[in-house]
Amino acid sequence: MKLIRFGQPDQEKPGVLLDGTRYDVSAHFVDYDEKFFAHGGLQQLADLLQHQAGQLPVVPAEVRLGPPVARPSKIVCVGLNYADHARETGATPPSEPVLFMKSTTALVGPFDNIVIPRGSVKTDWEVELAVVIGKKASYVEEADALQYVAGYALHNDVSEREFQIERGGTWDKGKGCDTFAPIGPWLATPDELGDVDSLRLWLTVNGQKMQDGTTAEFIFRIPHLISYISQFMTLLPGDVISTGTPAGVGLGMTPPVYLQPGDVVELGIDGLGTSRQVLKAYGQD
Ligand code: ZN
Where is the Fumarylacetoacetase-like C-terminal domain (predicted)? Predict the structure, then answer.
């Protein structure tokens, strides 16, 4: 299944994408939130589509898409999880996953604008595979970890490199700014996607290819990440894990290249669709 959320910001309703057409399921479900995933929502949605798909209202194509999950309790990110990206940033490939948090207020829809934060001169891009958790996960064994996955989505882990690296302390300062987490267009359930260890992921800026990688280059694979993170915190249904970015970010170029107002970022992952964001200056409409 491909789950979408549509409508104005903070007023999104749940829907599904079937053969390229969007359908409204808000008469049957409140939202794709913690309660939905925790209480068997995915199975109920599958039953609904099996029996009543023909009776669902169509959502017009021009309606805005929001992120495909409601604001989660956490967005946990993995840093330096591709060997080629670790090299370009000058970092040693980590012996354990590098974790940082992205504020949940950064979440926006896949075609929303990215706002360059006040005072920022080093706003950068990162195409990533995001994992959405389907059930409460604490001290999960690696062998069981994929049972905790609700699905997967495309994510741009937008990053402010000065805030992240030059302002002291953790990376979190450069990761949680408003609009820094465009997710979607849809959440694909695992059966839709097949092998998540060989997905191509790419990103362009103003049409120029910047990133072109594959999840085959993961240093730590998804079952290890879920198990590892669950040793340090409980993951709740609807929580998002972003699994790191391949080479080709602006920070890694010589000289580095950063995003400017008016720039257009497009990205995609096999089976997870494409997204597109236009850069705006802070305070610009
Ligand atoms: Zn990242």
Answer: 74-277
Residue 50: partners with Cβ closer than 8 Å, 6 or more residues away: none
Task: Identify whether the C-beta of residue 209 lies closer than 8 Å to the C-beta of residue 249.
Answer: no
Tens of pLDDT along 127-174?
999 999 999 999 999 999 999 999 999 999 999 999 999 999 999 999
- Here the tokens at position 168 are 């002291």
What top-level class would CATH report for the domain 69-281? alpha beta
Q: Which two tokens stand for residue 50?
A: 């099996």
Q: How far apart are CA 180 and CA 160, in angstroms?
A: 9
Centroid of ligand 1 to alpha carbon of 245 (angstroms): 5
At 282, the amino acid letter reads: Y
pTM of the model: 0.97
CA atoms within 13 A on the CB side of 2: 18
Give me Rg for the CA atoms of the chain: 18
DSSP string, 124-164: E--EEEEEEE-S-BSS--GGGGGGGEEEEEEEE--EEHIII
Q: How far is the CA of 251 from the centre of ligand 1 (A)?
A: 12
What residue spans in the chain does CATH classification 3.90.850.10 cover? 69-281
> What's the CA-to-centroid distance between 5 and ligand 1, angstroms?
24
